[in-house]
Design a protein that fits this description.
The chain is of the alpha+beta class. It is built from nine helices and ten strands. Strands 1, 2, 3, 4, 5 and 6 form a six-stranded mixed beta sheet that branches. It has a four-stranded antiparallel beta sheet with strand order 8-9-7-10. The model has no long low-confidence stretch (mean pLDDT 94).
Amino acid sequence: MSRSSFAPGKIILSGEYAVVFGHAGIAVPSSIGMEVIFEEDSNADQLEILWDGTYGGEPWLAYAEKIAGLCRKKRTKLRGRLMIHSGLPLGKGMGSSTALLIAMTRAVLGDDAREEALLMEDHLNPGHSGLDFAVIWEDTPLLFRKGMNPEPINLPPGMLRGGVLIDTGLPSEPTSELVAWMKEKLTAAGTRRPSSESLEALNIIARCSERLIAGDDLSTVMRDHHKAQVALGVVPEETQELIAAIERAGGAAKVIGAGSRTGGAGMVLALGADAEKLEAIAESRRMPFMQL
Ligand code: PMV
């Protein structure tokens, strides 16, 4: 038996962190993603996991082993070869770990294993809102609110045309750590009051989702969204400088995932200006980029 599956990555247009606290978020699947082929061989001694495409080294192989281990709860005799082709930048805000989990679950357990996959995501990515999981599983643009059924959303056709994704480097902290830090800042821990600046930033992000639903211009919304992410403290300086240069060139840009407190901020979505201009800005900073 051989079964293959594909799970896309995701681009969050609006809602990072706000979704964790119950506000609305909007995300779209990316055209690139993770492909998995599972060749079952009951005569094999074990499951061999092979990696092709973007490879993140031992930690990613270990992550795939963990997912396989969780799949074994449902399918105890998991033997043969599992080939992963990763077309996504890894650990950079495009939902690579969730895409890997979903592509593997679909290849091993089948397309109806949504519940099993979500339980694995809860286990491996504690504190997540469910936004990445929903958009990657459904592979369609979604309006997401925690605890509610995600709603497919019609965005203006060509909304992201001419957009560029710029790689600002690997975040220094994993999402689960950043989410835990944000929760501590935003809820009264002990005698400390929640940070009012962060609460206001979260409200601005929540309003950005509503503005997009109301049909506001994406570039205009993205500029406000980016400022709020800066206020939350998850856009390191080098990325702030990149985005300021994009805005000076007439464009708009934002980090499309959890970002980071230091180091890289993962992928940045840039649009609203001539694509060549955006690419030149990335190139001058030696940041890799790809067209949408
Ligand atoms: O893990 P990332 O970079 O795709 O972050 C997703 C967005 C957050 O709101 C920060 C976390 C979440 O679970 O929604």
